[in-house]
């Protein structure tokens, strides 16, 4: 490509809601590398300085991105924990303490009642000076709902007024941006600031959502903002996306405390272009982000997440059957959730409901809070619920889930054997069953509202509840029927055979896998959460089963489904195109359509080009030798044309509407008394990608996927016939899949 000797500001950039040209961006990066290499050859001092500068700039950018991501994650964790407890009461010894920290500092607390201390006062104690009786319950109920509505109202109002892009999880848009799409402002400073504030408010409101998905968006905002401090990232969209891939890994690293899982998540789920050097850079970013969050220690337990657990009891081969059952449940739940949530989101987009986001959020928040308060498992934050469900009951646990008979009897190894369930366990089972129904239903209507909302935690909660219910059932079955053939070979009476917390963890992985269709990264994230290598096989079995079941009922994960719903031009690299169509079947123009709009290399005036620009909306134009020959010369982008002509009118004397535009290397001498010519060869792509009209579309689709093309030109015997854009390819794929091709809105 013949680049400008003196670059014109704006040339080589892209309009909003357009796809970048990966080939062009990589070519520009190679030219920059050649220029740096030439400077290095000239002077040995410059060689070492430039080498150090290149390495330092990238590592400094990633370090700052990771430090900022880890710091914001710690701030969000601490703030959300405090504001969640604020709905139930306040610490009189220090308003900045949450419930747990308030009682940690108390001298009047016992181990059995460690969540009760005189320094922590419920709202009924503050308002009517008592915590007993029906009226006190009503006051606490009212204040819980009131705080939830206030937090939700502030969140949706801030998003609506200041940063509309701060809503949702952000992962569908991040995937689209990493594939080369431009959404200006989506990773900007206003979006970062509002998303950070409103994420705390949304989580604290008690809605069925999580902060883990939005933390990926927050980390990518940090990476994008810091890219503007370095020329090579600010001026090159492809290089910037390498940083964003690493930032996505840092986001998952601080969300789950899983650095390796973050790297694999970026590779498996969000990244479109992931070269080998991005792998170790993502590893570095995830490491620094996790180290930063660990230094902050937001939960006070030296862990990166609230629900870190450790299991020590081995699992047995027979337990693969219930683990696979949990995988089937996760796949069914994932397929059900995707279909119902997409149907509801489509209804929101196509009806009057979408015009009233504040009302929708307040109604869903009110319903959630009213139904959540009476049940202790829905009243607490979802992260705390998952932590309790993952927990393996010990001697000192006071939870109802650990209310077993003979609870203080231990086995020879000091472990708690399987025991008969007490009244607390049976009560907890009924409450968890109601919690499961509420979480399944309310999450469908919550995800997609105009507030920050992640899906990882609600999906894990659904699976963890189902897993805990099944785990307790298996535990009681093994206790009362240890002489059955399926138990007597490995589970003797009084032994610790079944770990219900492990079932909860496997169920959480199954449901998250069913919704997102993650496999490798999901298993690694769950492994890092538990720290147990021996549980990888159950996790793999559940994750693969859930993916197979969900894929049998629908091929798309939740993020791909939302990408298609929003009409983003995302070309999925995992799907095969198996239809026997040709390039001539997809190209524009079709038969009986008007001829393709082209520019000639040496016979059009400025006025002719400006007329074509004003009368069409195309992103670029092929340049040919003449309209008669239709021999291809190159391709020029609409934006570059507009900027170059405007710049020439301002800076080049005598350029008027009748000036001839030349895309050739040499222009003929200008006769006297004629306006000067305008040479625009420097903005012309002299090597546009071309295919013949008989090229199979499966090859064309592969070319678009692997090269990241915006468009390719179709020729026949060297003559230009038409053009195929990325939007045309996506519409054709949708049409072949019996989907609505008009759902693809952008190019």
From TrEMBL:
InterPro entries: CBS_dom, CBS_dom_sf, Cl-channel_core, ClC. The keyword Ion transport applies. One of its GO terms (molecular function) is ATP binding. GO terms for cellular component: early endosome; endosome membrane; Golgi membrane; plasma membrane; synaptic vesicle. Interacts with NEDD4 and NEDD4L. It is a multi-pass membrane protein. The keyword Ubl conjugation applies. Belongs to the chloride channel (TC 2.A.49) family. ClC-5/CLCN5 subfamily. It catalyses: 2 chloride(in) + H(+)(out) = 2 chloride(out) + H(+)(in). Keywords: Antiport, ATP-binding, CBS domain, Cell membrane, Chloride, Endosome, Golgi apparatus, Ion transport, Membrane, Nucleotide-binding, Repeat, Transmembrane, Transmembrane helix, Transport, Ubl conjugation. This is Chloride channel protein. It is found in: Cell membrane; Endosome membrane; Golgi apparatus membrane; Membrane. SMART domains: CBS. It comes from the Eukaryota. The chain crosses the membrane at residues 134-156, 243-267, 317-338, 358-375, 428-448, 455-474, 502-527. It holds the Pfam family Voltage_CLC. Residues 587-651, 683-743 form the CBS domain. Coiled coil: none annotated. Proton-coupled chloride transporter. Functions as antiport system and exchanges chloride ions against protons. Important for normal acidification of the endosome lumen. May play an important role in renal tubular function. The CLC channel family contains both chloride channels and proton-coupled anion transporters that exchange chloride or another anion for protons. The absence of conserved gating glutamate residues is typical for family members that function as channels.
């Amino acid at each position: 490509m013949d680049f400008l000797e003196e670059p014109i500001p704006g040339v080589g950039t892209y309009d909003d809601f357009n796809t970048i040209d990966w080939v062009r961006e990589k070519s520009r990066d190679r030219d920059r590398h050649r220029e740096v290499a030439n400077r290095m050859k000239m002077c040995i001092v410059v060689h070492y300085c430039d080498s150090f500068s290149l390495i330092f700039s990238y590592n400094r950018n990633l370090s700052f991105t990771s430090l900022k991501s880890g710091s914001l994650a710690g701030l969000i964790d601490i703030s959300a924990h405090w504001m969640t407890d604020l709905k139930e009461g306040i610490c009189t010894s220090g308003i900045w303490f949450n419930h747990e920290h308030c009682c940690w500092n108390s001298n009047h607390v016992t181990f059995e009642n460690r969540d009760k201390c005189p320094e922590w006062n419920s709202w009924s104690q503050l308002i009517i000076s008592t915590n007993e009786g029906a009226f006190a319950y009503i006051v606490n109920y009212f204040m819980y709902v009131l705080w939830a509505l206030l937090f939700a109202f502030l969140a949706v109002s801030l998003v609506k007024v200041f940063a509309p892009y701060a809503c949702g999880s952000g992962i569908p848009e991040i995937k689209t941006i990493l594939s080369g799409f431009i959404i200006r402002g989506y990773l900007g400073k206003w979006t970062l600031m509002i998303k950070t504030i409103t994420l705390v408010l949304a989580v604290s409101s008690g809605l069925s959502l999580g902060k883990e998905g939005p933390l990926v968006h927050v980390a990518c905002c940090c990476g994008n903002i810091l890219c503007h401090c370095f020329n090579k990232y600010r001026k090159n969209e492809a290089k910037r996306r390498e940083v964003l891939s690493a930032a996505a890994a840092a986001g998952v690293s601080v969300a789950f405390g899983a650095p390796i899982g973050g790297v694999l998540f970026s590779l498996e789920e969000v990244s479109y272009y992931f070269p080998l050097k991005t792998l170790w850079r993502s590893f570095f970013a995830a490491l620094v982000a996790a180290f930063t969050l660990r230094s902050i220690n937001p939960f006070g337990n030296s862990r990166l997440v609230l629900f870190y657990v450790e299991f020590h009891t081995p699992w047995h081969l027979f337990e693969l059957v219930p683990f696979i059952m949990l995988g089937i449940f996760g796949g069914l739940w994932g397929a059900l959730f995707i279909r119902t949530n997409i149907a509801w989101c489509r209804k929101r987009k196509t009806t009057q409901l979408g015009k009233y986001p504040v009302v929708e959020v307040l109604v869903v928040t009110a319903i959630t809070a009213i139904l959540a308060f009476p049940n202790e498992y829905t009243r607490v934050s979802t992260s705390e619920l998952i932590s309790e469900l993952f927990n393996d009951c010990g001697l000192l646990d006071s939870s109802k889930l650990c209310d077993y008979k003979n609870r203080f009897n231990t086995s020879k190894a000091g472990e708690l054997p399987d025991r008969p369930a007490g009244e607390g366990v049976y009560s907890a089972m009924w409450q968890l069953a109601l919690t499961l129904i509420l979480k399944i239903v309310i999450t469908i209507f919550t995800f997609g509202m105009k507030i920050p909302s992640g899906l990882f935690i609600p999906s894990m909660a659904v699976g963890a509840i189902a897993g805990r219910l099944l785990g307790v059932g298996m535990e009681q079955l093994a206790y009362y029927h240890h002489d059955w053939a399926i138990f007597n070979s490995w589970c003797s009476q009084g032994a610790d055979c079944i770990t219900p917390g492990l079932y909860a963890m496997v169920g959480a992985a199954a449901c998250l896998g069913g919704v997102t269709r993650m496999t490798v990264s999901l298993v690694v994230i769950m492994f890092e959460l538990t720290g147990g290598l021996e549980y990888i096989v159950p996790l793999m079995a559940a994750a693969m089963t859930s993916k197979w079941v969900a894929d049998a009922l629908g091929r798309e994960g939740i993020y791909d489904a939302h990408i298609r719903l929003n009409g983003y031009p995302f070309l999925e690299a995992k799907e095969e195109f198996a239809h026997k169509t040709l390039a001539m079947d997809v190209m524009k123009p079709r038969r009986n359509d008007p001829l393709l709009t082209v520019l000639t290399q040496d016979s059009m005036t400025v006025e002719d080009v400006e007329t074509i620009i004003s009368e069409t909306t195309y992103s670029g134009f092929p340049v040919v030798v003449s309209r008669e020959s239709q021999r291809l010369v190159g391709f020029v982008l609409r934006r570059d044309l507009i900027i170059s002509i405007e710049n020439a009118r301002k800076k080049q004397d005598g350029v008027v509407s009748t000036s001839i535009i030349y895309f050739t290397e040499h222009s003929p001498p200008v006769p006297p008394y004629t306006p000067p010519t305008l040479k625009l060869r420097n903005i012309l792509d002299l090597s546009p990608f071309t295919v013949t009209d008989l090229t199979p579309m499966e090859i064309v689709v592969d070319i678009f996927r692997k090269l990241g093309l915006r468009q390719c030109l179709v020729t026949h015997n060297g003559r230009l016939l038409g053009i195929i854009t990325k939007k045309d390819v996506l519409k054709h794929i949708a049409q072949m899949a019996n989907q609505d091709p008009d759902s693809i809105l952008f190019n």
